Amino acid sequence: MVNLLPKQEEEALLGLKLELLDTSNSLYDWSKVKQPDNNKISSACSWSGITCTTSTITYATNNNNYSTVTGLDLSQKNLSGSISGKYIKLLINLVSLNLSHNSFSGKLPQEIFTSLPNLTTLDISRNSFNGNFPSMALPADDYDHIMVQQHHHRLVVLDAFSNSFSGSLPVQLTKFESLKVLNLGGSYFEGRIPSWYGSFKSLEFLHLAGNLLEGEIPPELGNLKTLTHMEIGYNSYQGNIIPWQLGSMTQLQYLDIAGANLSGSIPNHLCNLTSLQSLFLFRNQLIGSIPSCFGNIISLQNLDLSDNLITGSIPKSFAGLKNLHLLSLMYNGMTGSIPEGIADLPQLEALLIWNNFFSGALPQNLGKNCKLKWVDVSSNNLTGNIPPDICNGNVMLSKLILFSNNFTGRLSPSLTNCSSLVRLRIEDNSFSGDISPLKFSLLNDITYVDLSRNRFTGGIPKDTVSQAFKLQYFNVSHNPDLGGFIPGEIWSLPSLVNFSASSCSILGNFPAPPLKSECSSSITMVELSRNNLSGTIPESAANCKALRVLDLSHNKLNGSIPIKFGNSSSLVLLNISFNEFSGSVPQSNNFRFMGTSAFLGNPDLCGEPLQPCFTSLGEFRLGRKNSEKLRWILLLCVGVVLFIVMSVLGIFYLHRQRDKWKMVPFTGFPQFTAKDILRSLSTTYTNDSIESQTVTPPLISSAPLICKSVLPTGITVSVKKVKWDSNRRELMSDFINLMGNARQKNLVRLLGLCSNKNFGYLLYDYYLPNESLAEKMIRMKTREPTRMSSSSSNWAAKFKIVIGVARGLCYLHHDCYPPIPHGDLKASNVVFDEGNMEEPHLADFGLKTLLQMNSWTGSVSGTDDELRRATIQEEIHRDIYSFGEVLLEIVSNGRLRNAGGSINQSKRILRERILSEIYDENDELEVGTSEDQDEIKLVFEVALLCMRSKPSDRPSMDDALKLLLSGGESKPH
User: Fold this and answer.
1) Ranges for the Protein kinase domain (predicted)?
2) Any idea what the Cα angle at residue 861 is, between residues 855 and 863, rounded to 5°?
3) Is the separation of the CB atoms in 50 and 70 below 8 Å?
4) Does 619 have pLDDT greater than 80?
């Protein structure tokens, strides 16, 4: 007796192998091997991914066992290429075919449906099959005659999730009477959902989400009496209403129509879905109130109606939803109080109702009888106190978010019981009393605490922070009666990044880090402004190598500035304004770049960037008492000299217009005069026309490129022109000085400013002959060669560009004070020099903000600071969004331009499909590895974080850079 596989099937498998690209050699054992004993060809049933069924056939006196292939599983084998159907159709006994989680492309062979009559399971999910679905090959008007011979087809499962199919949804599938699972989500299907889809006889699972479907949702879907799971969201339907007929699907357990452009109200008929466990209708434009009859769906576990236009209150009937785990109503216009019955839901884990208009108190039993893990009721009009039993015996609560309400009272002692608490945000309320209930020795996992803008008193207990080993963010600012002292332990907490206690009436000395080795390596920001601190700044504070911002302004500190701070490699801002410091500012670039605002309000302090410290003949520090007489003498002499000089200059001014020009060079730029610059510009315009201001090239984009200019020493610069009103000149010049002092390798250097009272010429490093990032993307998209060297034409080179852009933008936002928004970040403003085509440089940073300054109205002293802060913050948020767009362009070789908003609104399945396409695009252009794919995915995810619609939900550039370098997670709400 022999066990043979029909030769036709074995040859079909070997032919199929030849069609595939198997870079990982996953099908290494698919080969003919002769057996040594009888020289027979071995059975292919032992090959990987093959399942056979054996049957016995008696012929004459011999019984032969014949094996036939019934299962072919090639999933997750890193295969690619296209499948013709030439060989697959020969496996006529296939029952199960699984090609999922590969990179197959091309059209799905129609032979799978026409030549495999025994097929019951077909899984082609997570590939790149494209074109029309194969059953669409016949004309639509032949519907009644299509596949007549196959209407008894045995197919039960068809999973085509996350591919690139296009065209209309295949209506002929409704002839498959045994079909139970139909997943066509995450492709490019367009048009309407066929009304015929309501005629499936046995369908239990329907997934059409994440396509390009439009039109109305057909009410015929309500005829699917056997359906238990339906996902049809993340499309863009018109008609915009939820058909009430969907309430007839009495077996339905899961309904998702999120992100589908729905409007109108929620039909009461959905209350008939008595088996429903999950209902997701978020991110639409639904109006009206929530039907109170939803409280009768006792099987409901997840209800998400967030990000709509829903009004009204939470129905009291929700007290009957004893199986509810998630209640998400955030981002609506709901009012009223939170029903007490919500607190009695035993399975409730997440209560998310932020950004509404709820009022009244939280249910006083909240947390006592449920399994709460996440409570976010921020940005409402809630009052009262924290429920006393919010953590009474509850070891599951990890996020308690109550900020921006009208809560009062003391911190509940039960907070100590929240051993699982990770995030506590109660800022911007009216809480009072002391903060001692926060015993960090019992809150072992807490990382984020914000108690700011309340009415706490009693100081910061030493043991409150001394054992906070995982604490990263601690803010008690703007509690005007807090008082007490600063615990010295803040310097030694191993994870602390930000410590803020401004405007708290804190007394005593500024605490010194005990030893250099004990200063936390993570602490980057300490804010202690507007307190009553006295004494000196301990020099050991400069030993904290990660410290970037130390704000001690508006206190009573005295003494001299520790010289060590001037040599700190990390310090960006030491704000000691409005104290009692004396002596000279240490000579250091750190302090010069901080500007005068960081040192103002200290009458006995002098030296750059403040007024010079003069003796009679040279620059030496003199106390104010010792130099009083000398000062009067000097002032008298200076007055006489100034009178003479001003008289001469006045006459000279009338005769020589060109002396109105002033040249300000920045670090590293030769000391050219204004005359040198104006003469150099004569290569494009005459000296007379430039100096008499008769030439005014039109503004384009954020600032115009006037010309390139070759200076006397041979330096080539780009020249841009900005105009200003006379009362804005000083303000704009100060900002240009800030731009000019910005020095980082990923920024195009601003070399100098040549200006008069009406406008100025900005002189930049010259990069124009080389490709910008936008030009690179065009060449990549059209498969043209770029100017990158062959050794760098891979993902590693692009990732280096990503990091370079991030570092440049991070420097502008976090290492400059005040921060400099780029304002016009895009691929065309990322340029490269001739020597290194992988190191990007950001051009035109700050120019948009600069030009906006000239349009501000109001008094210079009163309005400008306010406008500047508001403008800078707004532009920084836009920078982060623009950074996300640039990242998408880089990973997609320029294809995904201005697509962030639509991708962010799509569901995970569509994003996964897009990511798969990005992998393919990068593989086509360059050799990639699994590590490359991990980095591509990381860049893609960071891009989507940066392009969130709400600015406050976007990461800072510092966080974005950390994510890109370490693969960490974004901060939660």
Assistant:
1) 675-973
2) 50
3) no
4) no
Give me 797's structure tokens.
């080179």
Has domain 288-430 been given CATH number 3.40.1080.10? no
What is the percent of the chain where pLDDT is above 90? 42
- Structure confidence by residue, pLDDT tens digits, 178-221: 999 999 998 999 999 999 999 999 999 999 998 999 999 999 99
User: Would you call 21 helix, strand, or coil by DSSP?
Assistant: strand
Q: Give per-residue pLDDT as tens, 543-569.
A: 888 888 899 999 999 999 998 888 887
User: How far apart are alpha carbons 479 and 643 in whole angstroms?
Assistant: 53
CA distance 236 to 261: 5
pLDDT, tens digit, for every residue of 192-204?
Answer: 999 999 999 999 9
**Tokens representing 134?**
């194969």
CATH fold of 770-781+793-972 reads Transferase(Phosphotransferase); domain 1 (1.10.510)
Task: List the CATH code of the domain at 660-681+704-766.
Answer: 3.30.200.20
Average pLDDT over residues 458-482: 88
Domains 457-612 and 660-681+704-766 share a fold: no
Domain boundaries, the chain: 288-430, 457-612, 660-681+704-766, 770-781+793-972
**Both tokens assigned to 115:** 């030549």
Between 133 and 646, name the one with better pLDDT. Answer: 133
User: pLDDT tier at 342 (50, 70, 90 boundaries)?
Assistant: very high
Strands (E), 516-617: 525-527, 534-535, 549-551, 556-559, 573-575, 580-584, 604-606
For residue 714, which amino acid is it? Answer: G
| CA quadruple 193, 195, 201, 205: dihedral, nearest 10 | 20
In this structure, the number of other CB atoms found within 10 A of the CB of residue 140 comes to 11
Helix orientation angle between 860-891 and 957-966, rounded to the nearest 10 degrees:
20
Q: Residue 508 in contact with residue 477, Cβ under 8 Å?
A: no
**How far apart (Å, rounded) are the C-alpha atoms in residues 794 and 836?**
15
C-alpha pair distances (Å), 528 with each of 65, 138, 158, 780: 85, 74, 63, 51
Q: CATH for 457-612? A: 3.80.10.10
Which value, in Å, is the radius of gyration of the alpha carbons in the chain? Answer: 35
pLDDT band per the 50, 70, 90 thresholds, residue 626: very low
Instruction: Tell me: pLDDT of 267 over 50.
Output: yes
Strands (E), 814-883: 830-831, 841-842
**C-alpha angle 425-427-428 in degrees, rounded to nearest 5:** 145
Contact 223, 198 (CB under 8 A): yes
574 Cβ contact partners less than 8 Å away, ≥ 6 residues apart: 550, 552, 561, 565, 590, 591, 594, 598
Whether the CB-CB separation of 353 and 334 falls below 8 Å is answered with: yes
Residue among 303, 340, 338, 341 at smallest CA distance from 320: 341
The per-residue pLDDT for range 867-894, each reduced to its tens digit, is 667 778 888 999 999 999 999 888 887 7
In 739-827, beta strands by DSSP E = 750-755, 759-765
Query: Is 29 one of the catalytic residues?
Result: no
Question: What are the tens digits of pLDDT across the range 638-651?
Answer: 665 665 555 555 44
From 428, 824, 879, 932, active-site residue = 824
Contacts of 931 (CB under 8 A, 6+ apart): none
**Which of helix, strand or coil describes residue 226?**
coil
Average pLDDT over residues 664-679: 74
Closest residue by Cα to residue 284 from 303, 310, 302: 310
Cα–Cα nearest to 124, from 186, 177, 51, 46? 186
DSSP-derived letter for residue 543 is G
Residue at token pair 């936008």: 774
Tell me which of 7-11, 333-337, 894-898 is least confident. 894-898
Rounded Cα gap, residues 740 and 761, in angstroms: 13
Query: Which amino acid is it at 629?
Result: K
Q: Rounded CA gap, 217 and 267, in Å?
A: 14
